[in-house]
């Protein structure tokens, strides 16, 4: 049986669906992710394109970083980031959307398994997950 996640922004006007399992579920500390998502680290899941049904293009604002090949898609109504797209090109869905759809809890199967670009961190994290200095644990 394939798991299906029905996700939405805060106002419910923008929705997306993810099927199956992500390629990765992680914390990323790189400066690019911090800038794109406006956070001290990204907690998210990376998916193959064929496992994500993105929102209709008229529901989102497509923000492109001027100096990097990275994009963030936000709800036109409430401004919540619903997903991003960056290296290696897969859709990246923030954990916050999965928590919202699951009563505030991250589904156990989506628990992060590693930290990427930990050398760039602005916040130390005391957990037992592998901490990749760069992107080598993901082949980056």
TrEMBL record:
Keywords: Lyase, Metal-binding, Zinc. GO terms for molecular function: carbon-sulfur lyase activity; metal ion binding. InterPro entries: CENP-V/GFA (IPR006913), Mss4-like_sf (IPR011057). The keyword Transport does not apply. Pfam families: GFA. Transmembrane segments: none annotated. Belongs to the Gfa family. This is Uncharacterized protein.
């Amino acid at each position: 049986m394939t798991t299906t996640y029905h996700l939405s922004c805060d106002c419910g006007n923008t929705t997306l669906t993810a099927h199956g399992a992500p390629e990765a579920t992680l914390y990323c500390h790189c400066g690019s992710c911090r800038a794109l998502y406006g956070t001290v680290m990204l907690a998210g899941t990376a998916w193959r394109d064929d496992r994500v049904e993105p929102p209709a293009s008229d529901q989102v604002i497509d923000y492109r970083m001027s100096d990097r090949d990275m994009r963030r898609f936000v709800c036109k109504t409430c401004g919540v980031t619903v997903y991003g797209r960056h290296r290696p090109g897969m859709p990246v869905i923030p954990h916050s959307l999965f928590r919202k759809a699951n009563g505030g809890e991250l589904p156990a199967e989506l628990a992060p398994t590693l930290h990427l670009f930990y050398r760039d961190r602005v916040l130390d994290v005391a957990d037992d997950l592998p901490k990749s200095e760069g992107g080598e644990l993901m082949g980056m």
